[in-house]
Design brief:
Blueprint (H helix, E strand, L loop, with lengths): L5 E5 L4 E5 L3 E3 L2 H9 L3 H12 L10 H14 L2 H15 L1
Parallel strand pairs: 1-3
Antiparallel strand pairs: 1-2
Helix pairs in contact: 1-3, 3-4
Length: 93
């Protein structure tokens, strides 16, 4: 699989991080809809980058992390979703 990095930006904070696709969003609902459009393979790849430390959740609003956790829990694994949430909480400490 060829990977093309782009930026995700949380428009409310001006913070950004690199991801597989460009996802610009001003609301958590819009962010969630953009995540839903990812294939399972793309979503799993994104999650693996986060767990490997190649992507970070520290600059992402809690509402957007909640949307990511919801989509991952529904489409991939509740265990991965819980681990993402724990990682987000740990990174915020």
């Amino acid at each position: 699989m060829q990977i093309r990095h782009a930026h995700i930006q949380d428009m409310s904070s001006g913070q950004c991080f690199h991801l597989y696709r460009s996802i610009f969003s001003s609301s958590s609902a819009d962010f969630r809809e953009r995540l839903v459009k990812l294939s399972d393979e793309e979503l799993d790849y994104l999650v693996s980058l986060i767990f490997e430390g190649m992507e970070s959740l520290h600059c992402v609003r809690k509402e957007h992390v909640d949307a990511l956790v919801e989509v991952v829990g529904t489409r991939l694994s509740r265990v991965k979703a819980t681990e993402l949430l724990e990682l987000y909480k740990f990174a915020g400490d």
